[in-house]
Amino acid sequence: MNPITVRDLVLGDGSPKICVPVVAHTAQELEAALDAIDLQSCDLVEFRADFYFEEDLYALNRIRERIGERPILYTIRTKEEGGEIEIPEDVYEARILAAAPYTDLADIQLGRLHTKMSNKALHSTIIQDLHNLGVKVICSWHDFSGTPDAPEMVRKMVMMQEEGCDISKIAVMPRDRADVAELIFASLEMLETYADRPFITMSMGSLGRITRAAGAFTGSCITFGMAGQGSAPGQIPSSDLRQILQALG
After folding, report:
1. Binning pLDDT at 50, 70 and 90, where does residue 117 land?
2. Looking at 17, 136, 142, 156, which residue is catalytic?
3. Handedness of CA 232, 212, 199, 246 (dihedral sign)
4. What pLDDT shows up at residue 228?
5. In degrees rounded to 5, what are phi and psi of residue 91?
6. Is 169 in the active site?
7. Which residues of 127-166 are buried (b: 16+ CB within 10 A; e: fewer)?
8. Could you report the per-residue pLDDT of 199-247, keeping only the tens digit for each?
9. Is 116 considered catalytic here?
10. Of 17, 136, 156, 169, catalytic
11. Are 237 and 224 in contact (CB under 8 A)?
């Protein structure tokens, strides 16, 4: 695996880095969310733009003022993707590209990575557009209802690498302990056989919490720890997560 560097943060080398999601609907809620961040247990911040009803660029500037040189991950997830908003494809792309100069990473769902033909001779993808703007891309796939078998999860992560993303991400919902083990098996297979760049894996909900602290073992390069309101089921407070990761080495 070849680590990547985003600002001064190295991903894919050593202990997983803690990403704190900022979840807010208004400017007032944004300030409360920023006040809740413990910078000692935060390596990067995810701005969940699908929750935010106001101006993205105002929020991104306030996040930058609060977190200094830590990277910002921009995510806008539609309801179809498990998020909070319904917007047309062209509006989605316009927002994510408008935010690019103020961010360091962007999360794009695997299902969006279809080539768009502008004419017969020229085509581009949203990954290429973001790379041209200096933004690294996390390609993600979520299953909020279950957990596929390990070969299928590995297949999806390999597909993400082939699409040109910088980091692959899989998040699944376990129905039992065996599903959590399946996610761990997929992570180890990816780490030991297929990963040529960093990846993120997690099993959501209370059953899957162990995977959020197991990145040093499974190879997952980022784990998500909440400060205030979480953005997905099973997130652990970032300060607790930092202590766990330090104890595990």
Report:
1. very low
2. 142
3. positive
4. 67
5. -70, -40
6. yes
7. bebbbeeebbbbbbbbbeeebbebeebbebbbebbebebb
8. 999 999 999 999 999 999 999 999 999 886 655 666 888 999 999 999 9
9. no
10. 169
11. no
